[in-house]
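Z., the sequence and structure:
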Amino acid sequence: MPGDNGKLGTQYRLGAKGSELVFTLEKAEFASRAILKDGAMFAAPGERLLVLTYAIQNPGTGDAHFFNQSFTFTVVSPDDENYAKGSAAYHPDRRDSLNMQLKPAQKVRALAVIRIHPNGPVNKLIVQRGKNTPVLRYDLKEKVKPLLGAFGADAGLNSVEVGASMLTVPFELGPWDVTVEKVEESPVAVGTLAPEAGEKVVVATMTVKNAALEQFIMHGSILQPKMTDADGTTLRSHGNMLKMSADDSFNMMMDPAAQVRFRMVFYAPLLAKPEKLLLKEYNSERSVVVTLSPPKD
């Protein structure tokens, strides 16, 4: 298709004559989630997200309509597979979907979020306004902000299927910011939590924050745990997420930015050394394995 080779920060007119808009790609970032007003978007297993920040300006003398379908974004992977599924016009701060009339010379910024291949660079980003119109082609190799956090690998160029974190280190998992604060062991009962003969109680204390812009519920089916010892043996789970102040089940609808603490309880042989805690999150279907030791200085 005819068109230009795009450069970050450079303005281009896109669209058929009489309906052009000036497009400027400002930055590109890899991500495992994007927090949006109408619901968080998660990278499913085998995916990561590409978040594009761009600016639009109306060069005409009359109003111009700008909305989710004003542009199409197509990502081409290293093996020449196309990815075009995503949302193309969100306000960068409010995170709501943009649908507006641009006055002459008016300029706005927007986000596009695209589900893409999990590993390797973005060989090509194709931007188009309308059909049968010239396109912009961006070579984004080495120009995308790395994927940070539990799912990032190889200096952020690639993503992993199962994320990795450590004790006391916060990480993203679905709409939550999660921290496994500490793990404590006791050979005797902790409150009503009594081990069987030859066992000890293992208690993981966690902090979870709702990072989304809408309510989400938190209970024992949302973060599904599996703790293993140094031999890879799965420890017996109590089965419930418990409150901090009582041995009652934790179940709470959480507002945006709300933060809570709760406990996950397991039973292990007396000589077993708890080593890892896998948490699978219901909304995103993604998992993170937490190594039950703090990071080294």
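The domain at 3-159 is CATH 2.60.40.1240 (Immunoglobulin-like). The radius of gyration is 24 Å.

Let me know what you think.
H.
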